[in-house]
């Protein structure tokens, strides 16, 4: 890891960083229990463990003062009426924020804090989202054809807490409805 200034690029159309240290692939199987329609999820998984999203990380020491960056690519798709999404997480050091810049595609960020307050923000090219400390976050791709690509930056010492969301789920679901995108209450939410 260089301790000298460094530059990387995000070349269109892929936006895959010219330099990255880690490439994560998340498939349907890693989102067990997160999609609302469990029956359809099982049927889809039995056919194929499809690739749902990918993350390209530019690593730095996981220390306060450093900033971790990267690209998150959520592919188009649905489980039943529910759009493809990331696992979602609180930061292990919960008092750490995050900034997202949407580079391509369309979608939304589902967020909630430990009190169970929820918020859903639209993501579109050029939109910058500030996720304050204490807010869990999940990216959702609502385009039928295009990947949702975001550039993210967050403090080096944040870490990830996935277990809380795996246990509770998020309070809101993002579904495809007759009239377009529907944000609905998650009937299986274990409200904190
Ligand atoms: C982070 C960022 C971001 C996130 C990806 C994948 O804290 O690292 O929020 O990089 O990890 O968008 O989402 P999941 O971490 O929820 O799988
Ligand atoms: Ni995060």
Strand content: 35-45%
Q: How many helices? A: 2
* Mean of all residue-level pLDDT scores: 97
Rg result: 16 Å
The share of residues in helices is under 10%
Which small compounds were modeled alongside the protein?
6-phosphogluconic acid, nickel (II) ion
**Backbone structural class:** mainly beta
Instruction: Name the poorly predicted regions.
Output: none
Query: How are the strands ordered across the major sheet?
Result: 1-2-3-11-6-9
Largest sheet entry: 6 strands, antiparallel
Shape by Cα distribution: globular
What separation lies between the terminal Cα atoms?
Answer: 39 Å
Strand and helix order: EHEEEEEEEEEEHEE
Number of strands: 13
Keywords:
192 residues, single chain, 39% strand, mainly beta
């Amino acid at each position: 890891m260089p301790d000298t200034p460094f530059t990387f690029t995000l070349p269109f159309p892929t936006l895959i960083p010219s330099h990255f240290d880690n490439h994560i692939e998340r498939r349907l199987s890693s989102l067990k229990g997160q999609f609302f329609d469990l029956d359809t999820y099982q049927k889809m998984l039995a056919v194929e463990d499809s690739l749902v999203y990918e993350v390209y990380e530019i690593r730095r020491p996981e220390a306060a003062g450093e900033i971790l960056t990267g690209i998150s690519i959520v592919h188009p798709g649905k489980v039943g009426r529910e759009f493809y999404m990331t696992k979602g997480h609180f930061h292990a050091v919960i008092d750490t924020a995050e900034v997202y810049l949407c580079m391509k595609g369309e979608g939304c960020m589902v967020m909630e804090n430990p009190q169970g307050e929820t918020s859903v923000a639209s993501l579109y090219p050029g939109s910058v989202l500030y996720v304050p400390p204490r807010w869990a976050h999940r990216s959702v791709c609502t385009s039928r054809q295009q990947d949702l690509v975001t550039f993210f930056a967050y403090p080096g010492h944040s870490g990830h807490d996935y277990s809380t969301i795996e246990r509770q789920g998020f309070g809101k679901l993002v579904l495809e409805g007759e009239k377009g995108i529907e944000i609905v209450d998650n009937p299986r939410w274990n409200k904190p």
